[in-house]
Amino acid sequence: MQRLNSHLHTKKQPPYVLNLDPAVLKVPFGTNIDIRDSVNYKKVMEDYNLGPNGAIMTSLNLFATKIDQVLGIVEKRAPKLDHVIVDTPGQIECFIWSASGAIITDAFASAFPTMIAYIVDTPRTTSPATFMSNMLYACSILYKTKLPMIIVFNKIDAQDPEFAKEWMSDFEKFQEALRNDEDLNGEGENSSGYMGSLMNSLSLMLEEFYCHLDVAAVSAYTGEGFDEFLESVQKKVDEYNKDYKAERDAIIKKREEDAAARKAQDLTKLMKDIGIQDDKAKPTDPAKEPIDSISDTEDIEPNELDGEVERDEDEGIIGQPSREYTLDPDDVGAHMTDSSLQDRYQQALAASGAEADREAMQKIINSGLQ
């Protein structure tokens, strides 16, 4: 990163640099956006009781929630930029195979032509087993991100990368290297030959994979090979615009159509549920209720009316409302107040009592005369 950054500055093409590694202590190059400015890696470890890799993933998750703001900043400066460099954590499982890594990668790929540079430590790749491990990592990254990729062999000042290029282009060269490695061909003391057979099968399987990769060789120490690397980057940008962009647009369109279909399905289900509830809550229309007629009542057996009182003829037809009794307005009593009624009641009671007293007195007198 530091060498690439300085190389672009010397070409008068300063890049826009983002650091997404929250665990790095010191960045040897200038950054425009740094994850450490918004997320404290050590505090995440302490607060959530996490280990190193867990804290890196949690920090990336927190940063991914603001990726729309990051894209907004980069898009404002994009007209004046030729390159945007994003330095990700070295642990592949923390970035490529995490949800936050996929969100960040997809966000950039949806806004800008994006490519992946996979850095290989050339001196450590001289062993066929290490070489095959690197190729499997690269293959997994390619199929996970679905973005153009360049395999970059670094430290070419310490180790010539031609052997690796031959292994990628010539299957027989890799088989020869397997036969000459005692730890893989079964001739070593602790070797069973299983690893050699596995490497042989993997190399056959990855032969098609190698054909779709661009290879670059650079030295971060001397700066050698960076012009060729930038040429490969430009080829991948053209490849992105030609092939990958159309594929990604199709994926995004399919995703949006699926989301719209799910939303419409949920809305239809919701409307059906609301309709069912409305039907249950809707009051019954009396006009639609069945009404018993006289003929229906005549068909009822006498014992079916047990416990019911039959209505008189003057009370109307069964099923009609009951008669309401009111005072006749022409009647005098209809105009009487409560006080006048009480006075009449008292007078009637007094008259009745006086009559009863006279009758009793008359009986006593008659009995005395006899």
UniProtKB/TrEMBL annotation:
InterPro entries: Gpn, Gpn1/Npa3/XAB1, P-loop_NTPase. This is GPN-loop GTPase. Its main location: cytoplasm. One of its GO terms (biological process) is protein import into nucleus. It comes from Sugiyamaella lignohabitans. It is found in: Cytoplasm; Nucleus. Residues 230-257 form a coiled coil. The lineage of its organism: Eukaryota, Fungi, Dikarya, Ascomycota, Saccharomycotina. Pfam families: ATP_bind_1.
